[in-house]
Amino acid sequence: METTQTVSAKESYVFGQQRRKQMRRMHHRTWTAKQRKESPLKLLEVSTRGRVPALVALKNQLMAASPFGYFRGAVPVMAYDLSLMQNTGICNQLCGDAHVRNLGAFAAPDGRLVFDINDFDETIVAPFEWDVKRMATSLVLAGRGAGAKSLHCREAATVFLEQYRMKMHAFARMPVLEVARYQVHRLGQVSPVAGILLMAERATPRHTLLTLTEVEEQKSVVKKGVKTGKVAKQVERPERVFRTIPPNLKRVTGGVAEQVVDALTLYAQSLQPERRHFLAQYRPMDVAFKVVGTGSVGLRDYVIYMEGKGPKDPLFLQVKEEVPSGYAPYVKGELKGRRARQHHGQRVVNGERAMQLQSDPFLGWTTMDGRDYLVRQLNDHKASIQLENLKSVGLLEYAGVCGEMLARGHARAGDSAMVAGYLGTSPRFDEAVAAFAEAYADQTELDWKQLVKSLKK
Fold it and tell me: Quick check: pTM over 0.85?
């Protein structure tokens, strides 16, 4: 029997230390726009090719609303900017779009509410610090957007980085299965997270049913007796359909709706057998086109309303188009070649399952018209942070949670000992990335102003 040679945690830690020769920790602070050979506006324009043309203007409006809104939709710009810099070469499964609003609450398979990273459209294997730098920058921008003082914004980035480093060292010392099972038990005591969990409790499938659907008036229908086959009486048979809520929700009928429903057959094959059995007990009732997020606006996104044991047993599935990660052009070598042939819905599912403690039980993928799609539940006890809650103490508390969650995700899907070896026990990495976060937040604000100016023209 063949055996696999594994590297010990101690050897990984030493390897991580040696990587400091490739990129010194203090060099992470450096950012200059002079390295750019492509303009941010050009990169954004290229990223919208193939999207629904009518929605590209809406995406630009959402990005123009604030620097943080711009940041959310500008992954292609930051991916390009990060690729211009040195990197550690310590590659990990990334969230890819690590920012404060991409952490949130959702229902686990056992029905309990969990809080974790919950958006993986940009997931990819790449240098671990790319996630860290994006999250740190998001804390600075979110704090500024909430009206926090500059000192608090810088402190929030530092708290996040310190917590990330300390937890990564803790994970490096833990047994493998303890890392896999690790849960954060203090979330209820963190005020911003407690508020998110409270909102998530209210976001039930029943609440979604009442929010997104309405009763469609229908003509009387003939109902036959079950045993005799004779006409018993005429009854009204009300059925729920999706509302039209411009510009975010529009009912879809005809051939497009049939195509979306037919795609569930392929999707079911991506589920585990017992979950496929549960899905089979639901029947599709209606289909709509939905606009979601900021970076995803313009991609095709459908929602399917399904019923199990009647109208009081709703299930909403989101069928979301997935395209290559914004980081894909900058990941070199054989790994890039493998990803180019991968189903991008499956890529997202694999990244999500690798980094999350528990994932949506209906997480899967399908294909329509040669396009890749992710499938998951829509709004099943989902909720995320509101920026106005990220002021002073709330910002610092939330920053610590971000550090712990990102460290857990990276430790689950990568080599925590190697990352810990690179980070070391001193705050050098923290200080350098905090300085980068401030500088890149300033750059983001300049890029945002450039976008706003271009849209006025």
Answer: yes
